[in-house]
UniProtKB/TrEMBL annotation:
This is Zinc transporter ZIP3. Keywords: Cell membrane, Ion transport, Membrane, Transmembrane, Transmembrane helix, Transport, Zinc, Zinc transport. InterPro entries: ZIP. It is found in: Apical cell membrane. One of its GO terms (molecular function) is zinc ion transmembrane transporter activity. One of its GO terms (cellular component) is apical plasma membrane.
Amino acid sequence: MEVLHLQLLVATGIGLSCSAFGLAPVLLPASFGRRLVRRASTRARLLSGATCFGAGVFIFVCFMALLPEADAKFHILMENILRHMIWKLFNMKGVYIYIYIYIYIYIYIYIYIYIYIYIYIYIYIYIYIYIFLIIFTIDKVVHALDPANHSHNHSPSIKIHPGGRIDNNNIENISLKGKYTSLEDVTDNTGGGTHGGHGVPSSVIFLMALCLHSVFEGIAIGLQDETTKIVEFAVAVVTHEVVMAFTFGLQVSKSPALSRTRKVLYVLLFTCSIPVGVLLGVGLSNTSTDHTEAVSAICEAFATGIFIHIIFIEILEGEFSDHLGHDEDLEDDEESNPRNEACVVLEKIFFICVGFVIMIVLSTVFMHPTA
């Protein structure tokens, strides 16, 4: 019951924190939003650091907690299936069953080794690869179908410098997850006003894809049955989702096509998806049926594919595909140079290492509370 209470507490905390960060840009006064826009470089730097910190946390949780847990569940599941198959083989009725007992022993050994190597190792790897490819394909297809992205992808962002010089090569991107939304502003030198596209996911399909993505993150928390793993998963998910919710709310708040009520509804639909996933995972783990172990193992593998997708496609690709993003958001008169590029890369790697080390410390503390 203690684990259940912790899971419900985590679901409530993640939902409230993500809602607070997501609704803040929508509900706060417009002057606050203008101050944020004037300090776009600082905002981009903070969001990038927080995103890289979340990447370090996700790397630890995925490869040190979620992947071994899914591996153990699949190992137990495949052993049970093989035992059931062999038990049926040895329960055969007949006069000559004892004559062929040694043959069946050798058959058992060879079948077990063959099926174990072929089914467990190959199918197990294929499951992870296919889950990864499915999520990647859905992500790319939904991104391509979003009408807001087509207008942005074919028109460069134009930035007007204080001296009147127009730089067509400077594109300011503050990503929700490396690619989902983009903040493209055209700033003039007279009024300092901000115009341009809002980059909001206007289609319901796109929003549901984001929600489905977050639901499986919550399911990964709900499937855990140890306090240590629940805390590790909660830290990983909340660091990723808080940054994502804030950026999502910031982008939604800048959309002139959406009413205030619809903006709030968009953010709440997005931020409530993780608590829903946690509840689904809790319900699945507490349901005792013949197929509970199989469903739990499949969901664990699916969540692992989600986490791998987040790490390598959404975070690392978005942060390291163009590490000049920080320099482009700095002051207009500041020239980029290799030293600045190296500092940006080292800064991101530092935040990744910090997230990874903090998770190691938390895991050690919770595993040895009396030490």
